[in-house]
Sequence to fold (355 residues):
Amino acid sequence: MDDRSRLLSELSARSREVFRLVVEGYLATGDPVGSRTLSRSMSEKVSPATIRNVMQDLEYLGLLDSPHVSAGRVPTQLGLRVFVDSILEVGQLNEEDRRQIDASLNGQDAGDVAGLLDRVGSALSGLTHGASLVLAPKHEAPIRHIEFVSLAPDRALVVLVFADGQVENRVFTPPPGQTPSSMREAANFLNALAEGRTIAELRAVMAEEIARRRQELDELARDLVEQGLAIWENEGEPHERLIVRGRSNLLPTDEDVENLERIRRLFDDLERKRDIAEFLELTEQGEGVRIFIGSENKLFSLTGSSLVVSPYMNAERKIIGAVGVIGPTRLNYGRVVPIVDYTAQLVGKLLSERG
Fold:
């Protein structure tokens, strides 16, 4: 049981009911929910004063917040997360929503995948009154060219040009500290290796290159450490660093200075290749069915937004893309989740039938 589930399980039945009613009221109206409103909805007769005490306890736990001086409460991001994970009851897709989704995707040209996915995006936006997200099937053709474009400190775009002429754009969250300059350097390095290779093959080449550099670095560094000329800091941790103190005094020979400079260059090169490998992994990975609330939504980092996303699969049950809806945190999750889930299953079925 994770911390969020444990938090809810430790609440009394009355506190759970107050919490549920506040969240449901907020999701329905977007307004703070007050104790007098709750007193009319509780399953047992409880005074507004008692409810206010319960709400204060829930606020202390970080599940509710009072946005104004008024007594009304709204759920926090943690509260919404707990509600979605532990209380939300996802209903069946209603027939009208199913009919509209089916109608939007019927009659599409069997070979027009781009047209199909465009219709999917329009259908999701229209049904949910939110923005739609559609990730096209991953392409396994050899790569001709890669380019990284920085969109924001925590958001970047990779442009993949394949040997068969197709082009894909993928948004991802880059490793911390990356700059437009470092992204250009990463792209140049990858383009030198990419020709004739798929992304998966390129990742394997990167892993071999990192392992080779690491071995070379370890051999050089071990000699310095054994000679007492340097020490490892944070030894064994993922980003250990070789620390050399007073190197001009400790390293009297030109050869030792050259070795130390070579180690420094190897360190920089290794960290650069680790970052590039992480770029590749982030642009290739697929997520399962997920709900991202507020700041959990790293893809767009929109304040007060939620993302409901579901993968779709090919005939071999391999994830090849995803569809989703982006909206306010007070999204009608109970309705949106089955819409997104059904649409993803339908897209996977249609694409599987078309091979």
